[in-house]
Amino acid sequence: MPRIGYARVSTVDQDLDGQLTRLRSEGCAIIRSEKVSGGSREGRTELATILEFLRPGDELVVTRLDRLGRDTRDVLNVVHEAEQRGASVTVLDPHVSTRGEMGHVVITVLGMVAQMERRFIKERQREGIAQAKAAGVYLGGQRRLDYDRIRQMAAAGAGPTEIAKALGCSRMQVYRVLEEP
Questions:
Q1: Residue 19 belongs to a domain with what CATH number?
Q2: pLDDT tens-place string over residues 110-139
Q3: Residues facing residue 60 across a β-bridge
Q4: The Resolvase/invertase-type recombinase catalytic domain covers which part of the protein (predicted)?
């Protein structure tokens, strides 16, 4: 039975190496990875690719359940989609698989914990920002893209794909900048 690994980190600054090493050591011949938030399924093209190509008997392997997502519904939908294709999902830490009935219960509970953890993270972030604003030290996030350059290139006739390649960003980021007033 083919083991297909999926690794994910939330930001481009984070490192995938630990997950990739663990998945390889667990016998995953195919590993797909991405650097995108697990808050929703939106924009997670590598996960979508895996789910699309799962075959009966395949096993989708992740190091931790929160790598699949931080929303219980999303996690359960991934598990459901895998099972609809005759595949199973295995989480390595703690070790649980959907091959048995108890695995579904544990994955549901772990999914709820991951969702709760995400809410706590967001709450702490909001509190920290509020404190920093009150202290007058919050300046907001720093822009990673040169918005003026994007607009100039678009005005000069460059398309979103060309702009994205030139600036090392996604087309979606280019579209968002161009949609801003």
A1: 3.40.50.1390
A2: 888 888 888 898 899 999 988 988 888 887
A3: 4, 89
A4: 2-136
114, 134, 157 - which closes a domain: 114
33 is catalytic: no
Q: Are strands 96-97 and 88-91 parallel, antiparallel or unpaired?
A: antiparallel
Both structure tokens of 155: 């005005």
Task: Output the CA–CA distances (angstroms, integers) from residue 43 to 37, 46, 57, 132, in the order listed.
Answer: 9, 9, 27, 31
| Distance set, CA 120 to CA 123, 127, 169 (Å) | 5, 11, 29
Is 135 inside any structural domain?
A: no
Phi, psi of 38 (to 5 degrees): -95, 10
Dihedral, CA of residue 103, residue 109, residue 111 and residue 117, to nearest 10? -150
Give pLDDT tens digits for 9-44.
988 888 999 999 999 999 999 999 999 988 788 889
Candidate list 10, 33, 37, 97, residue with the active-site label? 10
Q: What confidence score (pLDDT) does residue 162 get?
A: 94
Same-domain pairing of 83 and 159: no
Residues 82 and 171 in one domain: no
Instruction: Please state which of the ranges 47-51, 73-77, 113-117, 138-142 shows the lowest mean pLDDT.
Output: 138-142
SS3 of residue 5 by DSSP: strand
Whole domain around residue 155: which residue ranges?
A: 147-179
